[in-house]
Write the structure tokens for this entry.
Amino acid sequence: MKCLCLVFDKIKYPDYFMSVEVKGKKLLFTRKQIDDKVRALAQQINQDYQGKNPILIGVLKGAFMFLADLTRYISIPFKIDFLRVVSYGSKDYSTGDIKLIKDVELPLKDEHVLIVEDIIDIGYTLNFLLDHIATKGPKSLKLCALIDKIERRKVEVPTDYVGFTVKKGFLVGYGLDFNETFRCLPEIYQLIF
Ligand code: PRP
């Protein structure tokens, strides 16, 4: 059954974007491409974290679908936690003013921690989160991002596991949103404005 989000094509966003109109969306990654990639990432994680009982931390909201699928392929023991940050600026461009609005709940001291994120764009969010988690004294700290979007990167982000590398584009679906819509699409699309 098609996701109801599809009906939001070709509409304006008067409350948030004033004049922004989405003209359409181009399929970038299919269900199979995403599933193959997620499975491959999980296999790598299974090997690297054997015997380490890692804590996977999902960054809300965007990572919810990726994390859920990833964990279905992880066969080693692990724990899960979440955090959430908001980044100020326009929706399309973060100013680097990042605020933590929900912290992790598990103690991370001396634990092997893997941050799971949907996308790295400018880099401010992950930079902030890596610094924040590092203050909690984990034994190791790594980052797994489904998409590394490189063209607008302003700060260096050390990625350990990356699914897809893309140059540019406003991407939606599979957790990624535009003004809180399109998150539930099972594939990943590039919006056309
Ligand atoms: C997105 C994405 C990353 C962040 C990356 O989250 O999920 O967390 O932006 O941006 P950056 O590399 O440019 O700093 P967003 O702030 O849109 O919130 P969301 O996860 O709730 O959609």
In short: The pocket of PRP is lined by residues 59, 61-62, 87, 94, 117-126, 177 (CB under 6 Å). The first helix runs from residue 31 to 48. Confidence is low (pLDDT under 50) at residues 1-8, 14-18.
